[in-house]
């Protein structure tokens, strides 16, 4: 019998290592993909993943049973990723290293452009957008959120999601369609708010 996330977290709060291992196995791949999409750096994503799991173990008492464990984990991962991107931005802003000159031995100018394709500000803005989107996903009805999570976070096909949920594939498609429509409306409203502020 598979333990629910809530039961596993209760056991982790009691310092049960086997429950912790189950949570790690259950979420490490999805969290790694999420972190990698946010920070776009394999090493940083790996370090942040370890930090998420460390916090699950050391701060399990902060989970109070309200909401799901998965959204709590993804919020924690998103916040750590945003902090990482802000830290990188601050380090780059305070660097005293002069820009490369023509006779520097630091590769071709095209390499500099490729490295600077996304500025730290853009990375933070993108990560903030990801955080906002996850906030909107959290507000979806449970049925829509389940389908969204299976298809987009767990990268499961429509048929696989239908089988896991025990519903017809057409129902999965319908819920996903309505979830996308709702998120698109909310996102457009958010973009209008940002434009009004600027």
UniProtKB/TrEMBL annotation:
Task: List the InterPro entries hit by this protein, alphabetically.
Answer: RNA_pol_sigma-70-like, RNA_pol_sigma-70_dom, RNA_pol_sigma70_r2, RNA_pol_sigma70_r4_t2, RNA_pol_sigma_r2, RNA_pol_sigma_r3/r4-like, WH-like_DNA-bd_sf
Q: Which GO terms describe its molecular function?
A: DNA binding; sigma factor activity
Q: Name one GO biological process term.
A: DNA-templated transcription initiation
Q: Which UniProt keywords apply?
A: DNA-binding, Sigma factor, Transcription, Transcription regulation
* Family annotation (PANTHER family): RNA POLYMERASE ECF-TYPE SIGMA FACTO, RNA POLYMERASE SIGMA FACTOR HI_1459-RELATED
In the record, the note on similarity to other proteins reads: Belongs to the sigma-70 factor family. ECF subfamily.
The name of this protein is Uncharacterized protein
């Amino acid at each position: 019998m598979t333990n629910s996330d809530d039961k596993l977290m209760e056991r982790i709060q009691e310092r049960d290592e086997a429950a912790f291992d189950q949570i790690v196995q259950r979420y490490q791949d999805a969290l790694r993909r999420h972190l990698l999409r946010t920070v776009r750096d394999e090493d940083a994503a790996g370090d942040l993943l370890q930090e998420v799991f460390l916090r699950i173990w050391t701060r399990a008492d902060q989970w109070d049973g309200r909401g799901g464990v998965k959204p709590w984990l993804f919020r924690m991962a998103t916040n750590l990723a945003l902090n990482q991107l802000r830290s990188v931005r601050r380090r780059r802003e305070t660097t005293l290293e002069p820009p490369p000159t023509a006779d520097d031995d630091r590769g071709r100018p095209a390499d500099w452009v490729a490295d600077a394709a996304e500025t730290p500000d853009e990375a933070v803005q993108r990560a903030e957008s990801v955080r906002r989107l996850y906030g909107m996903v959290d507000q979806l009805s449970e049925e829509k959120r389940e389908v969204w999570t299976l298809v987009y976070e767990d990268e499961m096909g429509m048929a696989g999601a239908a089988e896991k949920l025990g519903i017809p594939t057409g129902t999965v498609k319908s819920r996903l369609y309505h979830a996308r429509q709702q998120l698109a409306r909310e996102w457009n409203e958010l973009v209008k708010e940002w434009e009004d502020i600027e």
